[in-house]
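User: Um, what's this?
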Amino acid sequence: MSRVLLAMSGGVDSSVAAGLLREAGHEVFGLLMRHGHAEYGENIRDARRVAEMFDIPFDVLNLEKEFEQIVEYFVDEYTSGRTPNPCAVCNARLKFGRLFDYTEKINAQYIATGHYVRLIPTEDGPILCRGMDETKDQSYVLFGIKRERLPRLMFPIGMYQKAEIRQLATRLGLPVAEKKDSQDVCFIPDKDHARLIRQYHPDLATSGKIVTTNGTVMGEHDGFERFTVGQRKGLGVAMGEPYFVVRIDSDTNQVVIGKKEEIAKSMFVANQANWLIDAPTKKFDCQVKIRYRTSALKAIIKPVSVDRFEVFFSEPCYGIAPGQAAVCYDGERVLGGGWIE
């Protein structure tokens, strides 16, 4: 069997992945990537305990310095009036870069993670597909993986439902079988991203007016970084009917709100494209997701250049936020994606 570098987090998913890889006969080496923005003591202890159970060598890689770039990206996007996606950026820029670097150190042939996605073998090489558990599918945040790296990846739990993973954890006798899943951005455990932004830019002036699309001032806000396009709750103004954030103007500090039909769009442009297929040169039909927790909608993709494309939805789409990822699918298969301008 092969030598596999497994990214471990101390959670149930990567721990079950360790057990499945060992049962398949692979030689496994566990690595926890520590970013320094959260208390990692418990996670390190849990990952080490699981590694010891399966007789897996284990190491901790301190990525605090590199991870700071992800946090800075997150802060910069919000202060520019955009909505960042740190998980997708971290996977593409950092995790699947440093993991491949580490394989050279231990002479590993493959990298495995506890993501809920699948790699399906074909005559033309493996293709990236959604995880079997639709509620846990993480393909959206992995669109940025380079196509040439797919043959060296493994996703052992992608074929399972979350409930089955819990059952496997119990069968394997894992000490983390009942450990809760992480639900938040890992460097903002308190969910207060505005606090983090103020921590980085204590003197930043982002307060301003809340206005309707026709320019009527409806109130004031204490920082536009607290808002995102498509947001309905927490606007701080009473309109008598549902209103949504239509756009954020970082030049004037205005948060512009409107009715639902005013956040509807049928077209947008995405850049910094990463394709897991041959880079398209002609328009084609697919489905596109604009946020992690939304469904993929029917669309036509029109390539503009190698790294830029236009998206035309069959029906109006609501809450398209600059800075989020636009990921293209053909059914279960991930075709690639880019970043909404």
Q: What stands out?
A: Residues 66 and 94 are 8 Å apart (CA to CA). The helical segments are 12-23, 41-53, 64-79, 86-106, 162-171, 193-200. The longest helix spans residues 86-106. The chain is about 25% helix and 30% strand.
